[in-house]
Structures are given as C-alpha cells and as structure tokens.
Design goal:
Glutathione S-transferase Yfyf (Class Pi), Chain A, domain 2; alpha+beta; four-stranded mixed β-sheet; 2 domains; Glutaredoxin; EC 2.5.1.18
Length: about 250
C-alpha cells in the first residue's frame, strides 16, 4: 500500500542518513598540539571530550619547539593548535568557538545573541584580565607579589558577582566561560599551595568556591584536568625557575 511504501522509504532514508553520519565521523581527523600542564590546551580537551570527538594529542616541548608546531602556527608559534582534517586553528578561544560551530551537540555557547556576547566577554575577561594580572605575581616576593594578589582579587570579585544564583558561569550547565575559567578553579587555586598565599580565600569568595565544587563534580572536568600531585610538582618547579630568573 502507499502508506507501507512511505514508511519503508522513511526507514531506509534514516538508515542511509545514520550510515553517512557514521562514515563522516570515521573520516574526521582531529589532532591537538598542546602540553599536559597548560590550561589553554586542557580547555580544548574539555570541549572535545564534552562533544564526544575522538582526537589525537601531540605533547609539545615549548623549550624546543617542533617543526610541526612552527609550521602549523607560524604567527604565534605557541600551543594549542587544533588540526581538523588538515586545517590548523590556533588560539584557544578561537578553537573553542570553532569546536562549538563544527560539532553542535552539547553546545557550550548560548543561542541567544546577547547571552553569547556576554559569554565571549567573560571568557576574554578571564584570559586578558585575571590571568595576566595573576601572572604578574609569579616568581615575585614581598610588595610586588602582594600588589599582584590584591589586583587579582579585585578582578575576581567581579566574577564572584556573576556567580550569584548560578550553578555555573554558563547558567545551569557547563559552558564556554566555565571551561575557560578552569584556569581559576584549577591552576590559580592549586598554585596557592605552592605560593603560600590564599589568592581566593573562601571567606571573600564563597560563590567561587561553591562554583569550583560544582565544576569538579562534572565527569568531563575530572577526566580532563591534570593529576593534582604531578601538577603541583610542575607548578613548584616552574615557580622556582621564575624566582631564580627574577633575582639574576
């Protein structure tokens, strides 16, 4: 009957579509150039894992940059670099948006244009304000370090206000700003143990601490952040090197 033929056609069309999708996924080549301890390449791993995208990770030695890295990112010569079907994309915020546009399941950016613009704003704020300011205190002691800590806290207070009434910076679920701000939740807060200064004390930043707790309960985050003991050893060694340089 016409109805039976139509149903059969729809089933066959679905099977073809599913087969084509599976073949397309198998043909995708995704490679990430990064370093295991970098918050900037780790955030790309979080996004790819959240999207369920298989990828090859290529650990880079930034003290002896590979010809591959220099070839794929001749402008900045830095990680991370995402290579998708032979095409390289650099700069972590650009890569995160590319991932969200390319693999549209589990979106990390809102659909609403205003909310999307705000997410981009806060992501840049974390990288260009909080990170840059916090780094000014690395390897420093005394007044220089104290000034950097206070300046970082002033910026974090703005993030604190953004978290009031929210489970995540992305709202009810993990989003772009949460992924970018793992830089605060993991790298900055772990470094407190090494520096011996509480940059993000719970009595001043209860909302940030509540958010960190929520964040660290997300399976994708737990899977993609560096192992704590190994990471702390790395941070300590890096800070020791920076201290030596600052007194030379």
């Amino acid at each position: 009957t016409p109805c039976r033929r139509l149903c059969t056609f729809k089933k066959e069309a679905k099977l073809v579509s599913k087969r084509e999708t599976m073949e397309a996924e198998r043909s995708e080549e995704v490679k990430l150039l990064g370093t295991w301890a970098s918050p900037f390449s780790r955030r790309i791993e979080i996004a790819l894992t959240l999207k369920g995208v298989p990828y090859e990770f290529s650990e880079q030695d930034l003290t002896n940059k590979s010809s591959l890295l220099l070839q794929l990112n001749p402008v900045h010569k830095m990680i991370p670099v995402l290579v998708h079907n032979g095409k390289p994309i650099s700069e972590s915020l650009v890569i995160l948006e590319y991932i969200d546009d390319t693999w549209q399941n589990n979106p990390i950016l809102p659909q609403d244009p205003y909310e999307k613009a705000m997410a981009r704003f806060w992501a840049k704020f974390v990288d260009e304000q909080i990170y840059v300011t916090a780094m000014k205190g690395v390897g420093k002691i005394g007044e220089e370090r104290d000034a950097a800590v206070e300046a970082t806290r002033d910026l974090l207070k703005l993030l604190e206000k953004e978290l009031v009434g929210k489970d995540f910076l992305g709202g009810k679920s993990l989003g772009l700003v949460d992924i970018v701000a793992t830089l605060v939740a993991v790298w900055l807060m772990r470094s407190e143990e090494i520096v011996g200064v509480k940059v993000v004390p719970v009595e001043i930043f209860p909302e940030i601490h509540r958010w960190v707790k929520n964040l660290l309960e997300v399976d994708v985050i737990k899977k993609c952040i560096p192992p704590e003991d190994e990471h702390l050893s790395y941070i300590k060694a890096r800070m020791d090197r920076l201290k030596i340089k600052s007194v030379q």
